[in-house]
Amino acid sequence: MKQKRTAGDIVFDTANIIFMLLFCLLCIYPFYYIFVYSFSNPQKADFAVLWPVQPTLENYRTVLNLDGFARASLNSVLRTVIGTTLTVLVSAFFGYLMTKQEMYGRKFIYRLAVFSQYVGAGLIPTYLVMRAYGFYNTFLVYIIPGLISVYFVMLIKTYIESIPPSLEESAKLDGAGIFQCWWSVILPLSIPILATVAVFQSVAHWNAWFDTHIYITDERLWTLQYLLQRFLNTKKEEEMLRRLSGLATNQLRVTPTSKSLKLAVTAVVTIPILFVYPFLQRYFVKGLMLGAVKG
Amino acid sequence: MRSTNPQTQSRGRRKKLNPERLKLTLLALPFLLFTIAFSYVPLFGWGLAFTNYRPGLRFDKLEFVGLKYFLLIGTYWERILNALRNTLVLALISLALFGLPILFAILLNEIRRPFAKKFIQTVVTLPNFVSWVIVYAICFGLFSSNGLLNMVLGELGLITQPTQLMANKNIAWTFMTVLGLWKGLGWSSIIYLAAIAGIDGTLYEAAYVDGANRFHCMWYITVPELMPTALVLFLLQIGNILSVGFEQYLLFANSLTASKLTVIDLLTYNIGLMSQDYSFATAISILRSIVSILLMSIANGMAKRIRGESLI
Question: Most buried of the four, A132, A156, B174, B223, by CB within 10 Å?
């Protein structure tokens, strides 16, 4: 259906596209600026607006050698990979179980889980219970509390219920047990929903810093996001200098400043999201729709 | 798992318990225990609000103090009132801006080229997926006293003193709202964009035949068709008024802006984890939960009345 474009249409379309492009610029430029600044010579970087001034890798070289940086990167990657894998598999299994109408007490278990979504004990009681469970200063605090996401269980259950039961029936007739049915029949068929859940969970893991902030004092367990948060906190400027002390600064051709290092860390922490997001965007949109159908 | 033991079989028959069905329940037991351990056990922590709990105190030394900490709220009324005001103001501002994602979705939908639409959609939703820590870092780069904004304005000779966007309590609410929009506007509009895609195309065709132009279509078809979605999201937002933006304000509140950015959740955090006054913080937490449940049921009741269907 093609309508004839009137003068009003042309004005509107032009204004609209200009507005959209400006908004896009507003969304992209701040990220771009982080890179421009951190690739510039720190002494001249204040005047870098569109491209790096006297480009240098010195900021990044310094950041990668910061005391504890490698460890924090490893922790971030580990919690993202292990946490996401386990949460997806465990939620997928319980989501599958919750489709079993013949289970004794299924309704009770499922309702109790769904209702838990609407009650929150609050920060302090949760904090104290986590400590009582022995999660204080352990890597497990990154993995276990998020191991089963009731929300994911709900999404996966709804999805599995749309799979024709005949597929599972025939596997059962061939003598497959419940684990085998789940692993070789249901799991492969649920890939679309599992992929959606996995991308949401991995972004959540990568971005998390508050759990480190309240449960972890052991520096060896810090994650990248938390390290960045500490660096940004100006009160901890000395800490950053202490972390630099291992490096003989006079060896460097240009001397990084506190700001150039902070923005270089920011760039490193942002890179995975920036480069992975455009490819996974459709999964995020799909996840949003699934959630909306439920709500 | 079929038992060959005749004794268990006969017992199973007497109780009419089917082992296959029971096995399923046993397999689901970890799920039940997990839910209880991480969602319901913490609720018992509410009991702390009625005791003199201190860090390191053994549980058998706990003393029941009744409503002492709830009455303490009266003593600290000024701080709590301030947090309450901040929470409500920030929540009301975001409620007032509720229509922006709708407007944005309608405008984005008017971009006709599919590739351009897809591209814009990807770019504007990106900020939603970086953490608030990164947003804070970006603001530090752009708006601190030696940040980009002050450099540019200074070079142009527009200012003599650096602007202090992040340390100015008079604009703290505006600044936080703008940041929230920057981060969330694109993402919030996606759901409306999907709703627009679901509108029956024949409505538009009929309107064109009747001589409507595209602006008529936007106003008289798209907007009304989006109202059911908008209503649900609006009511959900009312239900969540008290729990917005904790992470954002925790990062951005500094000594200069704290009086404007300390929301209820942040106050609980400060009293509980910073001053380690666990009992008092829990007391505030409990009151907040009660108000929260009230708001949720009001929103739910409104939903039932307006659309004949509850939210949850």
Answer: A156
